Amino acid sequence: MPPDVHEPDLHPPDLHQDVAARLAGRDGRYTGSRRDLIQALAEAGRPLTVDEIVERSPRQRPSSVYRNLAVFEAQGVVRRLAGVGDLARFELTEALVGHHHHLACQTCGAMTDVQLPHDLEVRLDEVLTQLAHSEGFTLSSHELDAVGVCQACSEGEN
Asked: Per-block average pLDDT, block size 10, for the chain (158 residues)?
């Protein structure tokens, strides 16, 4: 059964309250600019580069985006993904949007969020736990990036 591609409805209705609470411990300020950045990430439904964040939220300057992403990353709001290619991509953490995986294009570097059917996710957890156990490792979570070629690249659009 193929994975289900996420729509941009990953984030719960209280996303901004959750982010504000996480920031209150250190930096304390959840400014309009930071809220716009979080909203851009939430609406994307996929990991974004800094340039893509600025494109979706034009009032943001790249230097401010980098600074805010560093604060968000330190507070467990955002995670950085190496992805394919040279550009880092950023997304909201699973604590905020739920567990998911990625399809990563090896040609253009685009990443798409996908969610496995529940029974397949359970089986994947079981197999990874068995593999970890056989190596004397205790598994706490997993991340899966499936690498291939996106539809746009396979059709020659990029």
From this structure: 42 80 81 92 92 90 93 93 80 91 89 91 94 94 90 83
| Residue 21 lies in domain | 4-154
Cα gap 101→5, rounded to integer Å: 10
20 burial level (CB within 10 Å; 0-12, 13-18, 19+): middle
In sequence order, what are the beta bridge partners of 48?
90
Q: How far is CA 82 from CA 11, 24, 94, 101, 108, in A?
A: 22, 28, 16, 14, 14
When divided into structural domains, the chain yields a total of 1
Q: How many CB atoms lie within 10 A of CB 106?
A: 13
CATH code of the domain in which 22 resides: 1.10.10.10
CA nearest neighbour of 19 among 68, 60, 77, 67: 77
